[in-house]
Design brief:
Layout: E1 4-8, H1 12-24, E2 28-32, H2 35-44, E3 49-53, H3 61-68, E4 76-81, E5 93-95, H4 100-110, H5 113-123
Parallel strand pairs: 1-2, 1-3, 3-4, 4-5
Length: 127
């Protein structure tokens, strides 16, 4: 089964574009408009990876990552923003605007090898 990615962004156009691009790349994709909605979704189904904007209302991306830090096993999180991350933030990061290919490469580097292999094999029709 392909890895599930939860896209969290308050910009509906960007969120929809990311959901479509990730689905086209073979991922199972869910979406949330902010960190609070993401936490509600995670309570029902834990994704393999979260792609979250940093600046959002209600609960921003860093607050979301901090709230999920005690989760076992850890939930992989990639943060994205048009502005630099605060000093000391240890999460993978991509700066907006970015090319989809660059994002897909970062996701492939962040996910466990077995998840990446599943996506590759599904693209070949082998899964």
């Amino acid at each position: 089964m392909p890895p599930t990615i939860l896209v969290v962004d308050d910009d509906p156009g960007l969120r929809r574009g990311l959901v479509d691009a990730l689905a086209d790349a073979g991922h199972t994709v869910a979406e949330a408009t902010d960190g609070l909605m993401a936490l509600k979704q995670i309570a029902r189904h834990v994704p393999d990876l979260i792609l979250s904007d940093v600046r959002m209302p209600h609960l921003d991306g860093i607050g979301l990552a901090t709230a999920l830090a005690p989760h076992t096993p850890p939930i992989l999180t990639i943060l994205m923003s048009a502005t630099p991350l605060p000093y000391g933030c240890a999460h993978p990061f991509i700066r907006k605007p970015f090319a989809v290919e660059v994002l897909l490469t970062l996701i492939a580097r962040t996910l466990p090898v077995s998840s990446v292999a599943t996506v590759a094999l599904s693209g070949l029709g082998a899964v």
